[in-house]
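User: Sequence recovery, please. Input:
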């Protein structure tokens, strides 16, 4: 998935989560559409998606066999 596509996917999930869990009416910036975000926020969403994508990679066996550390 492209970085922009992933960032948009992350944003959609973020907005859905805010709408589901935020009590009351969220600030407009919390639920703004991708096109309405400032560049720095689009870049932040892209960075977050990239981190999640890298960490959740099928090649990363840490997620295949979780360990419980105390």
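Assistant: Recovered sequence (70 residues):
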């Amino acid at each position: 998935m492209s970085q922009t596509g992933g960032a948009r996917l992350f944003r959609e999930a973020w907005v859905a989560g805010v709408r589901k869990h935020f009590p009351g009416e969220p600030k407009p910036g919390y639920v703004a559409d991708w096109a309405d975000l400032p560049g720095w926020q689009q870049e932040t969403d892209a960075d977050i998606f990239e981190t999640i994508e890298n960490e959740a990679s099928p090649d990363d066996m840490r997620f295949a066999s979780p360990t419980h550390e105390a």
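Residues 29 and 36 are 9 Å apart (CA to CA).
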